[in-house]
Amino acid sequence: MAKNDFIARLLIWRLRHMSNQNFILILSGIIGILSGLAAVILKEGVHFIQNFLTEDFYVQYANFLYIIYPIIGISAAFILSKYLFKDFGGHGIPDVLFTISKKQSLIPRVKTYSRVITSALTVGFGGSVGLEAPMLVTGSAIGSNIGVLVHLNSKKRALLIGCGAAGAISAIFGAPIGAVIFAIEVILMEISTASFIPLLIASVTGSLTSMILIGRDRVFYFDLQDSFEASHMPYYLVLGILCGITSLYFSKAVMQTEKIMEGFESQLLRILYGGALLGFVLFFFPPIYGEGYDTLNMLIRGESSQLLDKSPFFSAIENPYMILFFLAFVILIKPVASALTLSAGGAGGIFAPSLYVGGILGFLFAFGKNMIDFHIPLPLAHFTLVAMCGVMAGVQHAPLSAIFLIAEITGGYELFVPLMFVSAISFVTKTYYQKDSLYTLQLKEKGRYLPETPDQELLDMISIHQVIERDLLPIHPNARLKDLIDLVKISKRNIFPVVDEKRHLRGIITLDDIRDIMFDAEKQETVQIQSLMHSPPEILSADENMQKAMEKFEKSGAWNLPVVEDGRYIGFVSKSRIFNSYRKRLIRKKHE
């Protein structure tokens, strides 16, 4: 009670002494700090678990614990998610997008800490996924719940969700600008100048929090020694196309693997089969363990010869062609390993795996070309980093985020031109074959979808139940024309639903259908309604979204359509009622 009194007094003081804009700015800073703190806890927790589990492993021996670690981590994450947190793991970013679009930006409070714990167990024990998505969910949940605490509307809560996402990504990568653009490009559908400032503040405070607590502990460590050469552009063109094709494979591999895993009705079987398969993959290819950023750092520094040292089955082989084979297999198996981790019950995301696959692809391309010794040598670090950008742009449909993220973590903008070029080529190549991002595909697989424009978003806020008209008078199919004439006398509508005793819709009748015979006394006594009725051009379901409803209106050309629920007639919906509701919401949105 004391807590509620304090919040109430604080809000009253705020209304008297502080504008909404300044209040949002303060909240964005707080959210950035909390998101940064959560990111630090998660990063350090994962590193501690991984070091504890693998520091005694010997390269020259087969480390069989790789096989059982994923089963342990995924099992622990699933048990905590289901029985303690009541928050099942899986993909995080699609859920955040759906929450903003369909659930008034209300994220359950448990998500402010549940994903930190479950993803630490998943990734720490070898789950081949990234920490960015769980961290983004945590930051978004912090923003949403703070918005609820201070009684902000759904639009402001969505902005605070974006602030939490920006603060989390900035804290992980140390890339404030890239984090802001990611929040705008992926999380928020629209943004204004006034909304842009809170995102900047949250991103900066998230990055500063991480920097203060753990120093400049960056994800990638390297020093670019080569300068960009225009003569490399033809190779970047080829790389961009390869990144787009790889992005397409990545998305299809993830979706298909998850579909296969969903075929197991028992969650226990998913954990056992998924964890075991992942364990055997790690056993033969240890670089796939966890996020895999250590492998990328090794490639960026030009230490590819040490890559095979991590595997006892390949460490004795010094043939450079074996490196090509090894990396090619990693590209093919990494998306499958990520999907196995998530569908088995682990918590994580595909953000880091897409960067990982991109980095491997870029290095493989440049390394293979240099082995041929044709034309000019290609800088391995440049192509590794640029391909990371390309695959991220293709998988997540976030080209701007990919460009600025990689540009920032390189410590400068030496690669800005190839980053822009490869990102654009990859995005165009991927979208030519597959329109939707992996996040959108995952939502559609669950029967969900996201509005593509602000207009669709506003339209989806209107439910069928809100616009149902129930003043249309029904008539039984066995009734006579005379009975219908009696209804016409008292009705203000020109449509009459034909409904049986079980409230099933049998058809409809309009005044136009009876205009020629309605004054014929003989037919009034002899003609039955079922001989006059006809089927409506379309029928709406009460649980249908408004976008599908409008498609039916457009397809049929009708102005009024009947609505049924569980097979029973409940009313009609008219275009004019929908447009009126849309207009009211549009005016309300402009005032917010």
TrEMBL record:
It holds the Pfam family CBS. It is a multi-pass membrane protein. The chain crosses the membrane at residues 21-41, 61-80, 112-131, 158-184, 196-214, 234-250, 271-289, 321-342, 349-368, 380-406, 413-433. The keyword Transport applies. It is found in: Membrane. Residues 468-525, 533-590 form the CBS domain. This is Chloride channel protein.
